[in-house]
């Protein structure tokens, strides 16, 4: 596990983080909502140490006390943004619930292998003090507070607001944003203080996406299309970058260098990656740098199947970009040494909706000559497609889970609901580029004691490249 002595949490620089010791355990939220199993979600601790007798096993389960929360993404009470402050410790995992709007504060400092609940922030706190709901992304701030983006208001309408938690007491302090102007939708965010900016994205209105995806809701304006630009120091909404109707920009990542004035955003529905950057005028702009062509299909929801890019990350040395196509079933690695011209250097198929012998027939494909074979590991045919990804600090191992969100899992991959999701590991060539599934690594969440469960985001106790921000 990462230790920094008297320096405070995290690492001085992203390159320092790459030299840290190998991950031994990971934390993974496991979801029962929409599976038909009436049990609370839980936080799983998974052993990922190849030298351990419990390698690839869940070694601890922390159930939350409520049903149907939909645990989703998580963050930290302190990270590398607090490096240098010896009074801060990375000892609490912030675990928002996407549907119930409850926030669990989990103690991972007392025993990292057996987390326990430290505090519960009830939904009414978000409703009354911030008029927001459906919390999503949590990032720690250098100030010691915790910033959480939200998808909507308490009535289920879209609203791109934020809630601020006190980093010591975890009390809701109120909204982070100032002024009346707020984006119509919210989702993910990243900040870059040296350029006085916070960028947020848009998924959809909670009442539209809660129980599945209706393509007509895109036409109704209930799904996102903008990168929203905020002034970091004044907390005001200053600019919207329109990526087009039906784009649905999801995960957003600045380059890790705190001096960088650029990054990338993955658009789910349009299956495009846009590079955003600061212009000479001082405002922000975006350009499409990657596009995954849709496939013409038969036997599916629509005649054109998008890749549905659902997660994206950047290696800590800012050299490689990775993303997952949840529907097409592949993970891709791009060399971004030239950020304006990403170069595909690695690709691996891990399931998806277009595998040979399945219900979907591909009629026209601009990329593949034939439908990929189903992905089988240790005798198990993997249901669903690759979704959440997390890279080891040294960039050599990419961890993958297969659940997107229970309401959409149920619609697009009903077998995932029955069989549970999996966690896989991909070996990464960090010299020339290249991806290869590690056939010795499989965590089958279909075999959990409480029944098959949907495993989502992956976090390391010492921080990782999607939670740490450098000041």
Summed up, what is this model?
Helix content is 7%, strand content 36%. With 471 residues, it is mainly beta.
Write the layout of secondary structure elements.
Blueprint: H1 14-17, E1 25-31, E2 42-47, E3 58-63, E4 75-76, E5 92-96, E6 103-107, E7 116-121, H2 123-130, E8 133-140, E9 146-152, E10 162-165, E11 172-175, E12 189-192, E13 197-200, H3 206-209, H4 216-219, E14 226-231, E15 236-242, E16 249-254, E17 262-267, E18 272-278, E19 284-291, E20 295-298, E21 304-305, E22 309-314, E23 320-325, E24 330-335, E25 343-349, E26 361-364, E27 376-377, E28 380-381, E29 389-391, E30 397-401, H5 406-412, H6 414-419, E31 422-428, E32 435-437, E33 443-444, E34 454-455
């Amino acid at each position: 596990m990462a230790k920094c002595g008297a320096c405070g949490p995290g690492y001085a620089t992203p390159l320092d983080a790459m030299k840290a010791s190998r991950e031994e355990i990971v934390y993974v939220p496991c979801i029962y909502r929409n599976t038909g199993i009436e049990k609370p979600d839980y936080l799983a601790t998974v052993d990922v140490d190849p030298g351990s007798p419990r390698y690839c096993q869940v070694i601890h389960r922390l159930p939350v006390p409520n049903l149907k929360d939909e645990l989703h993404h998580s963050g930290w009470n302190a990270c590398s943004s607090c490096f240098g402050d010896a009074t801060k410790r990375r000892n609490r995992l912030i675990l928002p619930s996407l549907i119930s709007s409850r926030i669990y504060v989990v103690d991972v400092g007392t025993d990292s292998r057996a987390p326990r609940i430290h505090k519960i922030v009830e939904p009414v706190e978000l409703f009354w003090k911030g008029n927001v709901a459906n919390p999503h992304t949590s990032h720690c701030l250098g100030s010691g507070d915790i910033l959480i983006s939200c998808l909507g208001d308490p009535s289920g309408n879209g609203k791109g607001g934020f809630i601020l938690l006190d980093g010591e007491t975890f009390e809701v302090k109120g909204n982070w944003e100032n002024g009346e102007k707020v984006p119509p939708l919210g989702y993910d965010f990243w900040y870059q203080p040296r350029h006085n900016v916070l960028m947020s994205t848009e998924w959809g209105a909670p009442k539209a996406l809660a129980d599945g995806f209706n393509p007509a809701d895109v036409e109704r304006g209930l799904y996102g299309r903008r990168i929203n630009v905020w002034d970091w120091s004044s907390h005001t909404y200053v600019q919207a970058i329109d990526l087009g109707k039906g784009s649905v920009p999801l995960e957003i990542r600045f380059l890790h260098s705190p001096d960088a004035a650029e990054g990338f955003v993955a658009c789910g529905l349009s299956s495009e990656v846009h590079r955003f950057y600061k212009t000479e005028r001082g405002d922000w702009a975006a350009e499409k740098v990657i596009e995954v062509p849709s496939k013409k299909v038969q036997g599916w929801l629509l005649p054109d199947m998008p890749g549905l890019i659902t997660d994206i990350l950047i290696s800590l040395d800012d050299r490689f970009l990775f993303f997952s196509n949840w529907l097409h079933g592949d993970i891709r690695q791009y060399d971004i040494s030239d950020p304006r011209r990403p170069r595909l250097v690695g690709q691996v198929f891990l399931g998806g909706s277009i595998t040979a012998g399945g219900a979907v027939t591909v009629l026209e494909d601009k990329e593949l000559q034939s439908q990929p074979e189903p992905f089988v590991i240790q005798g198990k045919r993997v249901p669903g497609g690759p979704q959440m990804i997390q890279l080891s600090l040294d960039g050599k191992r990419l961890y993958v889970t297969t659940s997107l969100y229970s309401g959409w899992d149920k619609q697009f991959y009903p077998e995932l609901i029955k069989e549970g999701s999996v966690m896989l590991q991909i070996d990464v060539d960090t010299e020339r580029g290249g991806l290869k599934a590690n056939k010795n690594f499989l965590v089958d969440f279909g075999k959990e004691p409480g029944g098959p469960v949907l495993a989502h985001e992956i976090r390391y106790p010492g921080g990782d490249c999607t939670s740490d921000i450098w000041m």
